[in-house]
Specification:
The protein has one domain: Glutamine Phosphoribosylpyrophosphate, subunit 1, domain 1. The longest helix has 15 residues. Helix 1 packs antiparallel against helix 2, helix 2 runs parallel beside helix 4 and helix 11 packs across helix 14. The strands form six sheets. Strands 8-3-2-12-11-1-22 form a seven-stranded antiparallel β-sheet, with helices on one face. The protein has a six-stranded antiparallel β-sheet with strand order 9-10-15-16-20-21. The protein has a three-stranded mixed β-sheet with strand order 17-18-19, with helices on one face. The N terminus is likely disordered. About 30% of the residues lie in helices and about 20% in strands. The protein has about 475 residues and is α+β, with helices and mostly antiparallel strands. A hairpin with a 2-residue loop joins strand 4 and strand 5.
């Protein structure tokens, strides 16, 4: 199938991994907010409704497409390595086993796993650059949600069960396992004190967490738990603008940051005639491009994608790892555990340095310079797999966004193809003939990522993460 030279316009909408998150973004769009305003409101709502994946104590990345100029900007507000104060060495971390795909995965949490958070600063910078509504109005939906709590989707409950050893550690037990029973789908997830924290954030801005009262509280809390976070680490934290990677897929241009898993490079490495390859041959070529050397961490991450009526797009992906189990007293905020994420520990880490990540919020631009897709994904090393499959589905196979996200995927680890049920038999046979070992999974699973996208085929969220898409 030939890729069309021009896509139809992308209608304004929001895609997220929770109904309340998407509703927060849509509310801001309806109030006249920009894509950036709505994305920030949705991200703040994730810090209430999606805390099994993310929170104010985490970090992330944003990609923004300006429709008038065609310019794409990537911002890095991921976590930084603490220790620039130089007055404290971290203590030992706490090891926990998380069972994922039937196999134990070892993680480390506790105070020593806490890196400098970036979510508040990132939200503030996105709003400063591209927002047009008052900051307080962007915090309002999350604040209101925090006063009541949010329904835990069944898909999030699956993640909670897998990640329970970390999430119910310490003060998390009262939130995720009240009265000794782990929350299940349909239960209310409520964080005592979080509404007060969001009220203060609305009034004082993101500086509250870096030079304000919450900065001192964060330092004292992390250090009491054995971490090295210091006041200079927080006061010196800055959102960074990063280079934009480029690739083409037929007539389309893909733009995103350079992530640890090289998503854009992978797209560039696909055969130039991938659009005309029979599906079995395409599967073999794709598997070769996606070969992943053994990294399979679970990836507690979430994404929001927004397009406004002017055609601007803002895609933001955030995470807190599994969560350190170190909570700001009385505020319902869990801090990140990124220094305990083994696959992100590189040899060049030093105090003040930004950590690496697989997160890759992206935009796709058509031959006329208009937006075709705004998308991002959760899923650690499967982020790349999920995004590439989504782009192939929407741009090459001509699927609507909902169908593209819901169809079965495969992921490559070493010489093994991990395939969801329903993946086409002919393609799996071609992969087996090419020498790949096939591992069939029993159900669609959050292991295979969690894409949210707004595209020519509408807004949609990944069913593996309870995602939804809402049109303006």
């Amino acid at each position: 199938m030939e890729i069309s030279q021009r896509s139809r316009p992308v209608a304004a909408g929001v895609a997220a991994s929770h109904p309340d998150t998407a509703a927060a973004g849509l509310r801001v769009l309806r109030a006249g907010g920009s894509a950036a305003d709505a994305a920030v409101a949705a991200v703040l709502a994730t810090c209430v409704a999606e805390t099994v994946y993310t929170g104010l104590g985490g970090g992330g990345f944003a990609t923004y497409f300006d429709a008038a100029s065609g310019e794409v900007t990537c911002l890095d507000f991921f976590v930084a390595v603490p220790g620039t104060d130089g007055d404290r060495m971290p203590g030992p971390m706490v090891s926990v086993d998380v069972f994922f795909g039937g196999m134990p995965q070892e993680y480390e949490i506790g105070g020593a796993s806490v890196a400098v958070p970036g979510v508040p600063a990132g939200c503030g910078e996105v709003h400063r650059r591209w927002g047009r509504l008052p900051w307080e109005s962007l915090v309002a939906p999350a604040y209101e949600l925090a006063t009541t709590g949010a329904r835990l989707p069944a898909a999030h409950a699956v993640t909670l069960k897998a990640c329970a050893p970390a999430l119910v550690y310490g003060d998390g037990a009262a939130i995720y396992q009240p009265n000794g029973r782990l929350l299940t789908g349909g239960d209310t997830l409520f964080h005592p004190g979080l509404a007060a924290a969001l009220e203060a954030l609305a009034a004082q801005g993101p500086e509250l967490f870096y030079t304000g009262a919450y900065a001192a509280l964060m330092v004292d809390t992390v250090r009491a738990a054995g971490g090295a976070l210091g006041p200079h680490d927080l006061a010196s934290y800055r959102v960074l603008e990063t280079p934009v990677d480029h690739a083409t897929l037929g007539a389309y241009k893909i733009r995103a940051r350079h992530d640890l898993n090289r998503t854009v490079d992978t797209i560039a490495a696909l055969p130039s005639g991938v659009a005309s390859l029979p599906r079995p041959e395409r599967a073999v070529a794709l598997a070769a491009a996606l070969r992943d050397r053994g990294r399979q961490k679970i990836g507690d991450t979430t994404n929001v994608s927004v397009v406004d009526t002017d055609g601007n797009a803002c895609v933001i992906t955030t995470t807190m790892g599994l969560g350190a189990g170190v909570w700001l007293p009385g505020l319902g905020i869990n801090l990140n555990s990124m220094l305990g994420e083994g696959e992100l520990i590189t040899t060049d880490l030093a105090p003040g340095r930004r950590m690496s990540s697989n997160m890759c919020p992206l935009v796709v631009i058509d031959a006329e310079g208009d937006l075709a897709v705004a998308a991002g994904s959760a899923g650690a090393s499967r982020i790349r797999t999920a995004l590439v499959d989504t782009l192939l589905g929407v741009l090459i196979d001509g699927l609507d966004t909902t169908t593209a996200l819901a169809r079965p995927r495969f992921h490559v680890v070493d010489d093994t193809i991990h395939a969801e049920p329903g993946y086409p038999t002919g393609e799996l046979e071609a992969l087996a003939e090419a020498g790949w070992r096939i591992q069939n999974w029993p159900t669609l699973d959050h292991y295979f990522g969690g894409v949210t996208a707004v595209a020519t085929g509408g807004p949609a969220g990944d069913p593996r993460r309870g995602g939804v898409g809402l049109s303006l």
